[in-house]
TrEMBL record:
Record-linked Gene3D superfamilies: Aspartate Aminotransferase, domain 1, Type I PLP-dependent aspartate aminotransferase-like (Major domain)
PROSITE patterns: AA_TRANSFER_CLASS_1 (PS00105)
Organism expressing this protein natively: Subtercola boreus
Family indicated by similarity: Belongs to the class-I pyridoxal-phosphate-dependent aminotransferase family.
Protein name stated in the entry: Aminotransferase
Domain Aminotransferase class I/classII large stretches: 35-389
InterPro entries according to UniProt: Aminotransferase_I/II_large, AspAT/PAT-like, NHTrfase_class1_PyrdxlP-BS, PyrdxlP-dep_Trfase, PyrdxlP-dep_Trfase_major, PyrdxlP-dep_Trfase_small
First-level EC class: transferase
Protein backbone atom coordinates (compact mmCIF):
# COMPACT_ATOMS: atom_id res chain seq x y z
CA UNK A 1 0.00 0.00 0.00
CA UNK A 2 1.25 3.47 -0.86
CA UNK A 3 2.21 5.43 2.23
CA UNK A 4 -0.13 8.37 2.77
CA UNK A 5 0.64 11.62 4.51
CA UNK A 6 -1.32 12.42 7.65
CA UNK A 7 -2.27 15.87 6.37
CA UNK A 8 -3.27 16.61 2.80
CA UNK A 9 -0.71 18.35 0.62
CA UNK A 10 -3.31 21.01 -0.20
CA UNK A 11 -3.81 21.98 3.44
CA UNK A 12 -0.26 21.44 4.68
CA UNK A 13 1.01 23.88 2.05
CA UNK A 14 -1.01 26.75 3.55
CA UNK A 15 0.98 29.23 5.60
CA UNK A 16 -0.46 30.62 8.82
CA UNK A 17 -1.75 34.16 8.51
CA UNK A 18 1.32 36.29 9.18
CA UNK A 19 -0.71 39.18 10.54
CA UNK A 20 -2.57 37.00 13.02
CA UNK A 21 0.66 35.21 13.96
CA UNK A 22 2.47 38.44 14.85
CA UNK A 23 -0.58 39.78 16.66
CA UNK A 24 -0.84 36.57 18.70
CA UNK A 25 2.86 36.78 19.61
CA UNK A 26 2.45 40.40 20.70
CA UNK A 27 -0.55 39.51 22.86
CA UNK A 28 1.34 36.60 24.43
CA UNK A 29 4.21 38.92 25.34
CA UNK A 30 1.75 41.42 26.77
CA UNK A 31 0.16 38.66 28.85
CA UNK A 32 3.63 37.76 30.14
CA UNK A 33 4.04 41.30 31.43
CA UNK A 34 6.08 42.91 28.65
CA UNK A 35 4.88 46.39 27.61
CA UNK A 36 4.60 45.53 23.92
CA UNK A 37 2.81 48.00 21.67
CA UNK A 38 1.30 46.24 18.66
CA UNK A 39 0.80 47.79 15.25
CA UNK A 40 0.04 44.33 13.87
CA UNK A 41 -3.71 43.78 13.81
CA UNK A 42 -5.91 45.28 11.13
CA UNK A 43 -8.64 45.97 13.64
CA UNK A 44 -10.23 49.20 14.88
CA UNK A 45 -9.67 49.81 18.58
CA UNK A 46 -13.14 51.28 18.97
CA UNK A 47 -16.12 49.46 20.46
CA UNK A 48 -18.93 48.60 18.07
CA UNK A 49 -21.44 51.49 18.20
CA UNK A 50 -24.07 51.03 20.92
CA UNK A 51 -27.11 51.03 18.65
CA UNK A 52 -25.66 48.08 16.72
CA UNK A 53 -25.02 46.16 19.94
CA UNK A 54 -28.54 46.88 21.13
CA UNK A 55 -29.95 45.52 17.87
CA UNK A 56 -28.02 42.31 18.48
CA UNK A 57 -29.29 42.04 22.07
CA UNK A 58 -32.87 42.39 20.87
CA UNK A 59 -32.24 39.83 18.13
CA UNK A 60 -30.86 37.33 20.62
CA UNK A 61 -34.12 37.49 22.56
CA UNK A 62 -36.26 36.88 19.48
CA UNK A 63 -36.90 33.13 18.93
CA UNK A 64 -37.08 33.58 15.16
CA UNK A 65 -33.31 34.11 15.22
CA UNK A 66 -32.71 30.82 17.05
CA UNK A 67 -33.27 28.72 13.93
CA UNK A 68 -31.68 28.08 10.56
CA UNK A 69 -32.22 30.82 8.00
CA UNK A 70 -31.35 30.93 4.27
CA UNK A 71 -27.71 30.05 3.65
CA UNK A 72 -27.29 33.12 1.44
CA UNK A 73 -28.39 35.53 4.18
CA UNK A 74 -31.42 37.18 5.71
CA UNK A 75 -33.58 38.88 3.06
CA UNK A 76 -33.57 42.16 5.02
CA UNK A 77 -29.76 42.21 5.15
CA UNK A 78 -29.41 41.41 1.46
CA UNK A 79 -31.74 44.33 0.73
CA UNK A 80 -29.63 46.62 2.93
CA UNK A 81 -26.46 45.46 1.16
CA UNK A 82 -28.05 46.11 -2.23
CA UNK A 83 -28.84 49.67 -1.12
CA UNK A 84 -25.27 50.17 0.14
CA UNK A 85 -23.83 48.79 -3.09
CA UNK A 86 -25.85 51.29 -5.11
CA UNK A 87 -24.92 54.13 -2.77
CA UNK A 88 -21.20 53.45 -2.44
CA UNK A 89 -20.28 51.38 -5.51
CA UNK A 90 -22.67 52.88 -8.03
CA UNK A 91 -24.04 49.46 -8.99
CA UNK A 92 -27.71 48.56 -8.91
CA UNK A 93 -28.16 44.90 -7.99
CA UNK A 94 -30.95 42.62 -6.90
CA UNK A 95 -30.75 41.07 -3.43
CA UNK A 96 -30.59 37.74 -5.26
CA UNK A 97 -27.10 38.77 -6.46
CA UNK A 98 -25.80 38.88 -2.88
CA UNK A 99 -24.48 36.24 -0.48
CA UNK A 100 -23.85 37.04 3.18
CA UNK A 101 -20.66 35.34 4.40
CA UNK A 102 -18.80 34.73 7.65
CA UNK A 103 -16.65 37.82 7.26
CA UNK A 104 -14.93 39.22 4.20
CA UNK A 105 -12.35 36.45 4.36
CA UNK A 106 -14.93 33.78 3.50
CA UNK A 107 -16.18 35.97 0.67
CA UNK A 108 -12.64 36.18 -0.71
CA UNK A 109 -12.17 32.42 -0.53
CA UNK A 110 -15.53 31.64 -2.11
CA UNK A 111 -14.96 34.13 -4.92
CA UNK A 112 -11.74 32.44 -6.00
CA UNK A 113 -13.19 28.96 -5.47
CA UNK A 114 -16.15 29.86 -7.66
CA UNK A 115 -14.13 31.22 -10.59
CA UNK A 116 -10.87 29.27 -10.73
CA UNK A 117 -9.99 25.93 -12.26
CA UNK A 118 -6.57 24.32 -11.70
CA UNK A 119 -3.86 26.35 -13.42
CA UNK A 120 -5.92 29.51 -13.91
CA UNK A 121 -3.84 32.59 -13.21
CA UNK A 122 -4.81 35.56 -11.06
CA UNK A 123 -3.03 38.90 -11.45
CA UNK A 124 -2.40 40.12 -7.91
CA UNK A 125 -1.14 43.70 -7.42
CA UNK A 126 1.65 43.51 -4.88
CA UNK A 127 2.04 44.28 -1.95
CA UNK A 128 -1.06 42.19 -1.23
CA UNK A 129 -3.06 41.07 1.79
CA UNK A 130 -1.49 37.87 3.06
CA UNK A 131 -4.66 35.74 2.58
CA UNK A 132 -5.07 36.29 -1.17
CA UNK A 133 -2.36 33.90 -2.44
CA UNK A 134 -3.45 31.19 0.00
CA UNK A 135 -7.08 31.45 -1.09
CA UNK A 136 -6.02 31.34 -4.73
CA UNK A 137 -3.87 28.26 -4.13
CA UNK A 138 -6.70 26.49 -2.28
CA UNK A 139 -8.86 27.03 -5.36
CA UNK A 140 -6.17 25.52 -7.58
CA UNK A 141 -5.19 28.85 -9.10
CA UNK A 142 -1.80 30.46 -9.61
CA UNK A 143 -0.87 33.83 -8.15
CA UNK A 144 0.96 36.14 -10.55
CA UNK A 145 2.46 39.00 -8.55
CA UNK A 146 2.54 42.44 -10.16
CA UNK A 147 4.72 44.59 -7.94
CA UNK A 148 4.54 48.34 -7.42
CA UNK A 149 6.92 49.84 -4.87
CA UNK A 150 6.89 53.03 -2.89
CA UNK A 151 8.38 54.88 -5.87
CA UNK A 152 5.04 54.56 -7.68
CA UNK A 153 2.82 54.89 -4.64
CA UNK A 154 2.18 51.13 -4.53
CA UNK A 155 -0.15 51.46 -7.54
CA UNK A 156 0.27 49.12 -10.50
CA UNK A 157 -0.14 50.31 -14.08
CA UNK A 158 -1.94 48.85 -17.04
CA UNK A 159 1.43 48.35 -18.74
CA UNK A 160 2.58 46.20 -15.82
CA UNK A 161 -0.65 44.19 -15.86
CA UNK A 162 -0.43 43.64 -19.60
CA UNK A 163 3.17 42.46 -19.30
CA UNK A 164 2.05 39.87 -16.72
CA UNK A 165 -1.02 38.64 -18.63
CA UNK A 166 -0.86 35.24 -20.34
CA UNK A 167 -3.33 32.93 -22.04
CA UNK A 168 -3.91 31.37 -18.60
CA UNK A 169 -4.95 34.66 -16.97
CA UNK A 170 -8.58 34.53 -15.87
CA UNK A 171 -8.94 36.97 -12.95
CA UNK A 172 -7.64 40.38 -11.95
CA UNK A 173 -7.69 41.13 -8.24
CA UNK A 174 -8.40 44.81 -7.62
CA UNK A 175 -8.09 46.31 -4.13
CA UNK A 176 -8.64 50.00 -3.43
CA UNK A 177 -8.02 51.16 -0.73
CA UNK A 178 -5.26 48.62 -0.24
CA UNK A 179 -4.33 46.45 2.66
CA UNK A 180 -1.38 46.64 3.41
CA UNK A 181 -0.40 49.97 1.82
CA UNK A 182 -3.43 52.23 2.17
CA UNK A 183 -2.99 53.22 -1.48
CA UNK A 184 -6.09 54.34 -3.40
CA UNK A 185 -6.42 54.29 -7.19
CA UNK A 186 -7.70 57.53 -8.68
CA UNK A 187 -10.93 57.40 -10.73
CA UNK A 188 -8.86 57.77 -13.90
CA UNK A 189 -6.54 54.88 -12.93
CA UNK A 190 -9.50 52.74 -11.92
CA UNK A 191 -11.23 53.38 -15.24
CA UNK A 192 -8.09 52.61 -17.23
CA UNK A 193 -7.54 49.32 -15.42
CA UNK A 194 -11.21 48.40 -15.69
CA UNK A 195 -11.31 49.11 -19.42
CA UNK A 196 -8.19 46.98 -19.88
CA UNK A 197 -9.76 44.08 -17.96
CA UNK A 198 -12.98 44.39 -19.97
CA UNK A 199 -11.11 44.49 -23.27
CA UNK A 200 -9.25 41.29 -22.36
CA UNK A 201 -12.29 39.39 -21.12
CA UNK A 202 -11.02 39.03 -17.57
CA UNK A 203 -13.00 38.49 -14.42
CA UNK A 204 -12.39 41.00 -11.63
CA UNK A 205 -12.59 40.31 -7.92
CA UNK A 206 -12.71 43.71 -6.24
CA UNK A 207 -12.18 43.84 -2.48
CA UNK A 208 -13.98 46.97 -1.26
CA UNK A 209 -13.80 46.32 2.49
CA UNK A 210 -12.07 49.69 3.13
CA UNK A 211 -14.05 51.78 0.63
CA UNK A 212 -15.57 53.99 3.35
CA UNK A 213 -12.21 54.74 4.98
CA UNK A 214 -10.55 57.40 2.81
CA UNK A 215 -9.08 60.79 3.66
CA UNK A 216 -8.35 64.26 2.26
CA UNK A 217 -11.46 64.13 0.09
CA UNK A 218 -10.22 61.06 -1.78
CA UNK A 219 -12.94 58.77 -3.15
CA UNK A 220 -12.29 55.06 -3.73
CA UNK A 221 -14.38 54.66 -6.85
CA UNK A 222 -15.68 51.17 -7.49
CA UNK A 223 -14.34 49.57 -10.65
CA UNK A 224 -17.90 48.71 -11.72
CA UNK A 225 -18.93 52.34 -11.38
CA UNK A 226 -15.92 53.40 -13.46
CA UNK A 227 -16.60 50.74 -16.10
CA UNK A 228 -20.25 49.59 -15.91
CA UNK A 229 -19.67 46.99 -18.64
CA UNK A 230 -17.55 45.03 -16.15
CA UNK A 231 -20.50 44.30 -13.86
CA UNK A 232 -21.21 40.98 -15.57
CA UNK A 233 -17.67 39.77 -14.86
CA UNK A 234 -17.01 41.29 -11.42
CA UNK A 235 -17.48 40.03 -7.88
CA UNK A 236 -17.43 42.71 -5.18
CA UNK A 237 -16.28 41.67 -1.72
CA UNK A 238 -17.17 43.75 1.32
CA UNK A 239 -18.31 43.64 4.95
CA UNK A 240 -19.03 45.57 8.12
CA UNK A 241 -15.80 44.72 9.97
CA UNK A 242 -13.63 47.75 9.29
CA UNK A 243 -16.11 50.59 8.80
CA UNK A 244 -18.23 49.77 11.87
CA UNK A 245 -15.57 48.27 14.20
CA UNK A 246 -17.24 44.87 13.89
CA UNK A 247 -14.30 42.55 13.19
CA UNK A 248 -15.50 39.96 15.70
CA UNK A 249 -19.08 39.84 14.44
CA UNK A 250 -18.04 38.04 11.21
CA UNK A 251 -20.34 39.49 8.57
CA UNK A 252 -19.16 39.99 5.01
CA UNK A 253 -20.70 39.54 1.59
CA UNK A 254 -20.24 38.88 -2.10
CA UNK A 255 -22.03 40.81 -4.85
CA UNK A 256 -21.90 39.57 -8.42
CA UNK A 257 -23.61 38.28 -11.56
CA UNK A 258 -26.37 35.72 -11.07
CA UNK A 259 -24.49 32.66 -12.32
CA UNK A 260 -21.43 33.26 -10.12
CA UNK A 261 -23.56 34.00 -7.06
CA UNK A 262 -25.70 30.88 -7.60
CA UNK A 263 -22.55 28.74 -7.81
CA UNK A 264 -21.07 30.35 -4.70
CA UNK A 265 -24.39 29.87 -2.89
CA UNK A 266 -24.25 26.14 -3.63
CA UNK A 267 -20.75 26.04 -2.14
CA UNK A 268 -21.78 27.96 0.98
CA UNK A 269 -24.81 25.71 1.51
CA UNK A 270 -22.37 22.86 2.17
CA UNK A 271 -19.53 24.88 3.69
CA UNK A 272 -21.14 26.95 6.44
CA UNK A 273 -24.87 27.50 5.87
CA UNK A 274 -26.13 30.80 7.27
CA UNK A 275 -24.11 33.38 9.16
CA UNK A 276 -25.17 33.89 12.78
CA UNK A 277 -28.58 35.52 12.73
CA UNK A 278 -27.61 37.73 15.66
CA UNK A 279 -24.66 39.13 13.72
CA UNK A 280 -26.80 39.58 10.63
CA UNK A 281 -29.35 41.61 12.59
CA UNK A 282 -26.51 43.74 13.94
CA UNK A 283 -25.25 44.29 10.38
CA UNK A 284 -28.70 45.44 9.28
CA UNK A 285 -28.62 48.05 12.02
CA UNK A 286 -25.11 49.12 11.00
CA UNK A 287 -26.00 49.63 7.34
CA UNK A 288 -29.39 51.26 7.85
CA UNK A 289 -28.79 53.22 11.06
CA UNK A 290 -27.09 56.56 11.77
CA UNK A 291 -23.59 56.92 10.33
CA UNK A 292 -22.20 59.56 12.68
CA UNK A 293 -20.11 56.99 14.60
CA UNK A 294 -18.48 56.00 11.32
CA UNK A 295 -17.55 59.61 10.65
CA UNK A 296 -16.10 59.99 14.16
CA UNK A 297 -13.95 56.87 13.78
CA UNK A 298 -12.72 58.00 10.37
CA UNK A 299 -11.77 61.38 11.85
CA UNK A 300 -9.72 59.63 14.55
CA UNK A 301 -8.02 57.41 11.97
CA UNK A 302 -7.16 60.50 9.93
CA UNK A 303 -5.55 62.16 12.94
CA UNK A 304 -3.51 59.04 13.68
CA UNK A 305 -2.57 58.66 10.01
CA UNK A 306 -0.98 62.09 9.99
CA UNK A 307 0.78 61.49 13.30
CA UNK A 308 2.30 58.14 12.36
CA UNK A 309 3.52 59.28 8.96
CA UNK A 310 5.12 62.38 10.47
CA UNK A 311 6.78 60.41 13.26
CA UNK A 312 8.08 57.59 11.08
CA UNK A 313 9.53 59.94 8.50
CA UNK A 314 11.73 61.42 11.21
CA UNK A 315 13.67 58.13 11.24
CA UNK A 316 16.64 58.42 8.83
CA UNK A 317 16.60 55.57 6.31
CA UNK A 318 12.84 54.98 6.57
CA UNK A 319 10.36 56.34 4.02
CA UNK A 320 6.64 56.24 4.80
CA UNK A 321 4.37 57.38 1.94
CA UNK A 322 1.14 59.01 3.10
CA UNK A 323 -1.73 56.51 2.73
CA UNK A 324 -5.01 57.82 1.34
CA UNK A 325 -7.22 55.03 2.68
CA UNK A 326 -7.69 52.12 5.11
CA UNK A 327 -5.73 52.38 8.39
CA UNK A 328 -2.25 51.17 7.50
CA UNK A 329 1.06 52.79 6.70
CA UNK A 330 3.59 50.77 4.68
CA UNK A 331 7.07 52.22 5.15
CA UNK A 332 9.99 51.36 2.90
CA UNK A 333 12.68 50.29 5.38
CA UNK A 334 15.38 49.26 2.92
CA UNK A 335 17.55 52.11 4.24
CA UNK A 336 17.59 50.47 7.69
CA UNK A 337 18.83 47.10 6.44
CA UNK A 338 22.44 45.93 6.46
CA UNK A 339 23.20 48.36 9.26
CA UNK A 340 23.88 47.50 12.89
CA UNK A 341 21.29 48.40 15.51
CA UNK A 342 21.75 47.32 19.11
CA UNK A 343 24.37 44.81 18.08
CA UNK A 344 22.17 43.25 15.39
CA UNK A 345 22.52 43.69 11.61
CA UNK A 346 19.22 42.85 9.90
CA UNK A 347 19.38 41.98 6.21
CA UNK A 348 15.64 41.52 5.62
CA UNK A 349 12.48 43.18 6.86
CA UNK A 350 11.65 39.92 8.63
CA UNK A 351 14.83 40.23 10.68
CA UNK A 352 14.16 43.93 11.17
CA UNK A 353 10.68 43.22 12.55
CA UNK A 354 12.18 40.74 15.02
CA UNK A 355 14.71 43.38 16.07
CA UNK A 356 12.01 46.00 16.59
CA UNK A 357 9.94 43.60 18.70
CA UNK A 358 12.83 42.44 20.86
CA UNK A 359 14.62 45.74 21.40
CA UNK A 360 11.84 48.33 21.14
CA UNK A 361 8.95 46.10 22.23
CA UNK A 362 6.95 47.19 19.20
CA UNK A 363 5.18 44.66 16.96
CA UNK A 364 5.07 45.30 13.19
CA UNK A 365 4.43 42.99 10.23
CA UNK A 366 7.40 42.35 7.91
CA UNK A 367 7.02 42.94 4.19
CA UNK A 368 7.60 39.26 3.43
CA UNK A 369 4.00 38.65 4.52
CA UNK A 370 2.76 40.85 1.67
CA UNK A 371 5.36 40.37 -1.07
CA UNK A 372 9.01 41.43 -1.33
CA UNK A 373 11.23 42.20 1.64
CA UNK A 374 12.21 45.76 2.49
CA UNK A 375 8.92 47.00 3.94
CA UNK A 376 6.86 46.80 7.12
CA UNK A 377 3.15 47.23 7.72
CA UNK A 378 1.89 49.20 10.69
CA UNK A 379 -1.77 49.61 11.56
CA UNK A 380 -2.70 52.95 13.06
CA UNK A 381 -6.01 51.60 14.36
CA UNK A 382 -4.84 51.86 17.97
CA UNK A 383 -5.02 54.54 20.63
CA UNK A 384 -3.30 57.88 20.12
CA UNK A 385 -1.08 57.50 23.18
CA UNK A 386 0.03 53.98 22.28
CA UNK A 387 0.72 55.08 18.72
CA UNK A 388 2.88 57.99 19.85
CA UNK A 389 4.83 55.84 22.32
CA UNK A 390 5.39 53.07 19.77
CA UNK A 391 6.75 55.47 17.16
CA UNK A 392 8.95 57.15 19.82
CA UNK A 393 10.43 53.77 20.72
CA UNK A 394 11.31 53.14 17.09
CA UNK A 395 12.84 56.60 16.79
CA UNK A 396 15.05 55.88 19.80
CA UNK A 397 16.10 52.46 18.49
CA UNK A 398 17.14 53.80 15.09
CA UNK A 399 18.83 56.92 16.38
CA UNK A 400 21.56 54.93 18.15
Amino acid sequence: MTERTRISHRISSIAESATLKVDAKAKALQAAGRPVISFAAGEPDFATPDFIVEAAVAAARDPKNHRYTPAVGLPELREAIAAKTLRDSGLEVSPSQIIVTNGGKQAVYQSFATLLDPGDEVLVPTPYWTTYPEAIALAGGVTVEVFAGSDQGYLVTVDQLEAARTERTKVLLFVSPSNPTGAVYSPAQTREIGEWAEANGLWVISDEIYQNLTYDGVVAQSIVEAVPALADRTILVNGVAKTYAMTGWRVGWMVGPADAIKAAANLQSHLSSNVSNISQRAAIAALTGPQDAVAAMREAFDRRRKAIVSGLNQIPGLHAPTPEGAFYVYPDVSGLLNRTWGGVTPTTSLELADLILEQAEVAVIPGEAFGPSGYIRMSYALGDDALAEGVARMQRLFSA
